[in-house]
Amino acid sequence: ERTEQTILHVSDLEKQFGGIVAVGGVSFEIERETITGLIGPNGAGKSTAFNLITGVYRPDGGTVYFRDEDVTDLRPNQLADRGLVRTFQISRELSGMTVLENMLLAFDEQRGESLWRSVLPGARRSVVSQERELLERTWEILELFELDHLAHEDAATLSGGQRKLLELSRALLTDPELLLLDEPMAGVNPTLEKKLLARLHELREQGYTFLIVEHDMEVIMNNCETVIVMHQGQVLSKGPPKTIQEDERVIDAYLGG
Ligand code: ADP
Ligand code: MG
């Protein structure tokens, strides 16, 4: 049920590809300042749900509310402006550019506008101060994920885990409230994974909200307050990890297999 703490509310979302129902009437709420896990077997519709929520796809039916606003028809950059961003299952860093350049480019990309929007007569000074702020924030985030020493390296030279961190860093740069992370731990080594999880908890305590698709059940069960289980384009179950682990339908459809 929807409460004051609800930051995201999706209602009866539907998406078909050709004749295939990828998402067939999905509804759920996400509470502010939580880490919620979205799990389910391959093909369950998790990535499609992410794409629908973040405006990458337009749904065939249903509604997405972000902070009580109907954002169903907004594009990704408009959502980023409002504080809703996502990362991708396959990270999309650009080779031939440094880590730092990737960060700065991401800002323009996600916002779909650039700081230059404010380059109007008389606005120069504010652009300079905005740029300085952006650079400071960029370095802060790179330090947070221990990427600062790699700032001037070609992004193509990063390890799989570091690419994941860069992807998350890029999303954070837009100063979002809600982040949707598609398999953030894939390819991340155990040491880095531990650090990344610690960072997520710190960020949650600072007021960020996370919805995470992750295959590693340990990660989901140990770090999420709430788990949503999808199966065949539907929500099969939703609840605290302990309840989910004992849910017969979930065990049959996913955990038992
Ligand atoms: P998950 O992320 O849970 O593995 P997906 O959302 O990727 O699931 O896929 C759900 C279903 O929709 C699958 O049957 C998949 O093959 C299909 N699907 C997803 N994206 C597309 C697409 N762009 N075109 C056609 N079919 C798609
Ligand atoms: Mg997927």
From TrEMBL:
Keywords: Amino-acid transport, ATP-binding, Nucleotide-binding, Transport. SMART domains: AAA. Residues 8-257 form the ABC transporter domain. GO terms for biological process: amino acid transport. Coiled coil: none annotated. The keyword Nucleotide-binding applies. GO terms for molecular function: ATP binding; ATP hydrolysis activity. The keyword Oxidoreductase does not apply. Probable component of a branched-chain amino-acid transport system. This is Probable branched-chain amino acid transport ATP-binding protein LivG. The lineage of its organism: Archaea, Methanobacteriati, Methanobacteriota, Stenosarchaea group, Halobacteria.
